[in-house]
Design a protein that fits this description.
mainly alpha, three-stranded antiparallel sheet, globular
């Protein structure tokens, strides 16, 4: 049997290839082995590498070392374990105010703590819209929605379709990256934000701009028509009405016709929810997610569902509550990674 040996260098380490052949089997095998005379090597956690370590193993060790923290400790990739009972209890407790808000929001047509469509005659319909006309020389939601075509209608619909999904998907993402403390912060901030909305809706119920514009246009031609009748015939806004007409189904009409709080335009909950995500995201992801927040804000104007003041109110509310939570966390000498505003 003849043995052929050759050597080369891999990352300053001598590598020897040996090939053996047998005349009887007419076959050959090539094995690549790594040799090092060092007694200590970083890729092997201090042990001297065996002469039987294949090149692939050594290369993988080097890659894992480069992915390890700068302290020199190696990391292992593990599948996220199921949350412990204590973690589930902490998440449920932090989400309880938000879930209670959703309950009262859903049953509002029965308990009527907030105005419903039948109360339209007792609601000041010109509160936020009057302020917007006073502060801005033109109605910005009208300007934004004036340039419209069907593809933009679908682009504006995407954030609305995902609105009720993100409070579930975002905590799931945080769990996968092992950031339980951010899940707790998110649900606490979201709960405080929505109860802030609830109080504002009690004090200053606001009709969405599309509904107010729709109401004004129809009453201009028929002053005797009831406002409640007008709003019942048109629930989704012009952009979503165009989509329903295109697909031939009242999809968005069915989504919005059952809105239990028709006078909840100010502040914008559609903007507030992603803002709660933005201020609790890990720092390196915030700049990317801010694009989504801008997308949502544009969509609320484009669809005529919110005024600019609704967006500003949502940003101010979430920012103020996030700062308050940060001060409370500092007072309690606990770690709080909420975005400083």
């Amino acid at each position: 049997m003849n043995v052929l040996r050759s050597s080369f260098t891999l990352n300053d380490r001598p590598v020897v290839t040996s090939s053996s052949s047998s005349s009887s089997s007419k076959s050959s095998a090539v094995v690549v082995r790594c040799h090092s005379a060092a007694d200590h090597h970083p890729t092997t956690n201090g042990r001297r590498p065996s002469y039987g370590d294949p090149v692939v193993v050594v290369v993988l060790r080097r890659l894992l070392l480069r992915a390890a923290p700068s302290s020199g400790q190696t990391t292992t990739t593990t599948t996220p374990a199921l949350p412990s009972r204590q973690d589930v209890q902490r998440i449920a407790l932090s989400a309880a105010p938000y879930l209670l808000f959703l309950l009262l929001y859903g049953i509002n047509p029965y308990i009527r703590l907030l105005p419903v469509a039948a109360d339209i005659g007792r609601v000041d319909l010109r509160n936020v819209s009057a302020w917007e006309e006073y502060l801005f020389p033109w109605q910005l939601h009208v300007v934004v929605s004036s340039v419209h075509f069907l593809p933009l209608d679908f682009v504006a619909a995407v954030p609305y379709l995902g609105h009720y999904v993100i409070p579930v998907l975002y905590p799931a993402f945080l769990y996968l990256i092992h950031r339980l403390e951010l899940i707790l912060q998110f649900y606490r901030l979201l709960g405080l934000t929505m109860w802030g909305h609830y109080v504002i809706w009690l004090v200053a119920p606001t009709l969405p701009p599309w509904a107010l514009d729709f109401l004004a246009a129809h009453q201009a031609t028929n002053a005797s028509i009831m406002a409640e009748t007008i709003l019942a015939a048109h629930k989704e806004g012009p952009a979503f009405a165009r989509i329903d007409s295109f697909i031939g189904r009242p999809f968005f009409y069915g989504m919005f016709v059952g809105n239990p709080v028709p006078f909840g335009s100010f502040p914008s909950g559609h903007v507030a929810w992603p803002m709660c995500i933005l201020v609790t995201l890990p720092g390196h992801l915030r700049s990317r997610f801010s694009v989504y927040v801008v997308w949502v804000a544009w969509a609320t104007l484009y669809t005529g569902h919110h005024y600019v003041l609704d967006i500003i109110g949502a940003l101010a509310l979430v920012g103020g509550l996030a700062r308050l939570m940060g001060h409370v966390a500092q007072a309690q000498q606990t770690r709080c990674s909420i975005l400083p505003l």
